[in-house]
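User: For my dataset I need records formatted as: sequence, then structure tokens, nothing else. Please produce one.
Assistant:
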Amino acid sequence: MDVELAIKKRKSIRRFENEEVSDILVEEVIKAAKQAPSSHNLQNWHFVVVKDKKTKEKFMEQNVFVQKEICDAPVIIVCCADKEAYSKHSIREHETNMQLVNLSLASAFLVLRATELELGTCFVAWCNKEKIKKLLGIPRSKVIPFVIVMGHPAENPEPRSRKSLGKILHKEKW
């Protein structure tokens, strides 16, 4: 599958088959993420892969996710950015949120590779990030803007509408 097809084929999948995702496939999507560009080549992303049912049960008990079905996903990838990656000497105002930009780029690569591998994914930001940090032992210096759920799709939703190119593309001037 080429990149254009993966972009067109990608959908937010929220229901998954009750089928394990192999560690090989998980590693493939993480390998794709690590190929993403990052400012200063810091590569300041980390991915905590959760497949264990007991950990997901703890998420449920602690009400980590507003949408309870999130814990039904075979894989929950907790996407973390290192907010201390920029030294105090290199921080400039425009860089203060670059850790989130870097992580978002890497996560987009991850999602496109998952699509190519015929896995479904969905970004989930509606969760208690502090509880996730505590349950998974994630250091305070890391920020969790979202998680990505992944698995073999049990649904094939219709593509959602997109704005026309004329509404988002501005040539030379606004």
